[in-house]
Amino acid sequence: MTTLSSGFARARRWLRDHPLAFDATLAFCTLVAMICGSFTDPGDGHGPPAFGARTPELFSVLLMTLAAAALVLRRRRPMQVLAVTAALAAVEYVLMDPPAPVVMSTVIALYTVASRTDRPTTWRVGLLTMGGLTAAAMVFGSTPWYSQENFGVFAWTGLASAAGDAVRSRRAFVDAIRERAERAERTREEEARRRVAEERLRIARDLHDVVAHHIALVNVQAGVAAHVMDKRPDQAKEALAHVRDASRSALNELRVTVGLLRQQGDPEAPTEPAPGLAVLGELVATFRNAGLPVEVACADRDRLPAAVDLAAYRVIQEALTNVRKHAGAGARAEVSVVRVGTTAEVTVLDNGRGSAGRRPGTGPDGGTGPVGGGPGSGGPGGGDGQAGGGHGLVGMRERVTALGGALTAGPRYGGGFRVHAILPVEARTGEPDRPGTAGGTGLCR
Question: How far is 237 from 245, CA to CA, in rounded Å?
Answer without folding.
Answer: 12
